[in-house]
Known about the structure:
Elements: H1 2-44, E1 47-58, E2 62-73, H2 76-96, E3 105-115, E4 122-134, H3 140-149, E5 154-155, E6 158-161, H4 166-190, E7 195-209, E8 212-213, H5 217-225, E9 237-249
Antiparallel strand pairs: 1-9, 2-4, 2-5, 2-6, 3-4, 6-8, 7-9
Amino acid sequence: MKKTVLKTLGLAGALVLAGLFFQNFMSESTQQDEGIAHADEDRSLGTIVVNGEGEVTAEPDLAVLRLGFEATKDSADEAQSTVSKQMESIKKALIDHGVDKESFETVRFHVYPYKHYEKEVEKFRAQHIISFETSEIDKVGDLLDVASKAGANIVEPVRFSLEDPTELEHQALQKAIEKTKGKAEAMAKTAGKSKGEVLQISEQGAHINMPVQNYSEEMAMDQAESSSKTVIEAGEVRVVQRVTVVYKLD
């Protein structure tokens, strides 16, 4: 009797396990079928991937000037002292012509041994270069003349830019996206389809091309020998945006 009961219980347990296994198998099979169906649906969805570029230009509203003085002397202390005194004169002249003294920033200061290639005598050279900004674009030439008259013998190219390029970046972005529409329509028409909705937009980042103008030694000499003022043409700032847009192909 006990053996019969045990056999019955064992058979029932086996049937339960078999049922659970079959249920789990059917569930996994259904999920796989649904996954295959979704994959087939995704593959059947046609898309058009288009690149677009938008560009806008504007007059700069900010100029960055870098200038300074260097001297070669018999000792490091003498070279440094000479440069320091001259730089104070240069900064004072610029302040007298409206430059905010708080805007001065030292970008380079060196004191190092120096040998002339034809002489064995060692000397020391000191160099001090400052940077400052101005929003008065039309006075850039005047400021360079003032610095040159005050003794500046190093004048690096003037870099023009925008104080806040955000609005121009947005305008360039809109132009870039607009250009993709025409390309997508032409591609879809050629394929016998039509351009559908936008599925994805990715930005590749803004590129800002800032004009750079030189103040040459010849310009400084010409200005020193005449009463004319140096005129620096700022040019235009160019903002370029590039995007990639994915359209649905209907």
